[in-house]
Amino acid sequence: MTQIQSCWSQRRSTTNTKTYIEDERTSADTDYSRIIHSASFRRLQGKTQILNIGDSDFYRTRLTHSLEVAQIAVGIVRKISQNQPDLKPVLPEHTQIQAIALTHDLGHPPFGHGGEVALNYCMKGEGGFEGNGQTLRILSKLENFSIQDGANLTRRTLLGVLKYPAAFSKVVNDAIQPSMVKETESIRIIDRHKSKPPKCFMDSETDVVDWILEPLSDSDKEKFTEVKAKAGKHGKTVHKSLDCSIMDVADDISYGVHDLEDAIELNLLTLNEFKEDVDQAACLNFLNTLQEKYPNEFSDDVYHEFSEKLFGDSKSRKRQISRLVGYFMSQISVYEKGCFEEPLLNYNLSMKSEAEAFLAELQLCVYKRVIQSPNVQQLEFKGQKMVVNVFEAIASEPLMFLPKEVQALYKESGEDKRIICDYIAGMSDSFLLKVYERLFSPRTGSIFDKL
């Protein structure tokens, strides 16, 4: 197995990479520490996963979701190390994959994907907005661990964060322009379909991506940044790095299983609805595994018994959720693509087809029954509307409405709207609501009101 080049542990800024001589941390340990201690990571506790903050003290926020994704990602690395020991030299350190997993939602704005669509609309003609691209921007430019390179993480960690290795300008379909719905007269409503951003990084971080990909050969760069066009849609990237694929699968497992747990716990999904969406054939391999591992607990009708336990009391449900996570992790392996010279690109994660299909059904069930439910969609619409209103109000007179420290950045940037976008994207749900109320609430308010 080829050893990973030392250039992947380099940082863009070479000053003050280790403050103390006695610091015995690896480069990956340092990256992990910087994420844990970052303001953007702490803000995840106030950002929506699916449900709104304050609905319950049970369900997951972006912060707890990110912690679970990190734990699953480490478990995947351990399992691959055991099952495919020849791949150990190419696998990330545990702290490195944790750092990558913990950052994967940093760029998501208030009110989830509704807020993302809103900011992409607000940034039309200004380079757009995309949550994963904002994550890269936060880590490489906005965090405060260096003068101008953000958290100044290692090249390998940033490669793992780079989920879609193509710039906005390379994937956007100019025929799909963010716009307002034309059918309404008394209110302005964003056309959510036309305003949905392509999956990408923003052009403002092209210099960062160029640096990340610097060690690659020209052929690897060209292949890795390949974009597939599709009529009537935005372009789509094709490849991810090994570390990114580990994080991505861990995120998929958490979305399909843990969000399912939230939905059941809060009575947003019934047993009958679950059976309608996830039939016995889809989870047959999982059911056979349950019967083999727990013969005293499951009889011939495993599907019925598993479903009843999943929708039973909290202790019973937690055991089934844990078994689901363990099952999906056991169905994972690393395969060789054979089209890249660089090992970090040439190896990727895959899940066995039966397990992948089962996980897809769980995700679709959550999407259909919870995310697309009127209760969630109405609140997402409301949050989206507030994001647009706050953005447009601030953008009307930035030097009057932005906080002083953000005003300074705005002036230094040459009055770039990206600074306003950064400010709003970094808000928690509750903070944006306070700003909205301060700007638009009929009550008088006071200059001494705390934001």
Count of individual beta strands: 4
Distance between the ends: 54 Å
The coarse silhouette is globular
Q: Which whole number gives the mean pLDDT?
A: 91
Structural class, by secondary structure, is mainly alpha
In percent, how much strand structure appears in the residues?
A: under 5%
H and E string: HHHHHHHHHHHEEHHHHHEHEHHHHHH
Helix content: 40-55%
Please mark out the parts with pLDDT under 50 across 5 or more consecutive residues, or reply none: 53-58
Rounded to an integer in angstroms, the radius of gyration calculated over CA atoms is 23 Å
The major β-sheet equals:
2 strands, antiparallel
By oligomeric state, this entry counts as single chain
Strand order of the largest sheet: 1-2
Number of helices: 23
Write the layout of secondary structure elements.
Layout: H1 27-36, H2 39-42, H3 62-83, H4 94-103, H5 112-122, H6 131-142, H7 155-161, H8 168-171, H9 192-195, H10 206-212, H11 218-224, E1 227-228, E2 236-237, H12 242-265, H13 271-277, H14 284-293, H15 302-310, H16 314-330, E3 332-336, H17 343-346, E4 347-351, H18 353-371, H19 374-396, H20 398-401, H21 404-412, H22 417-425, H23 429-440
Structural features, described:
Helices cover 54% and strands 3% of the residues. It contains 23 helices and four strands. About 1% of the residues have low confidence. It has 451 residues and is mainly alpha-helical. It has a domain of 130 residues. The termini are far apart. A two-stranded antiparallel sheet has the order 1-2. Strands 3-4 form a two-stranded antiparallel ribbon. Helix 3 crosses helix 12 and helix 12 packs across helix 18.
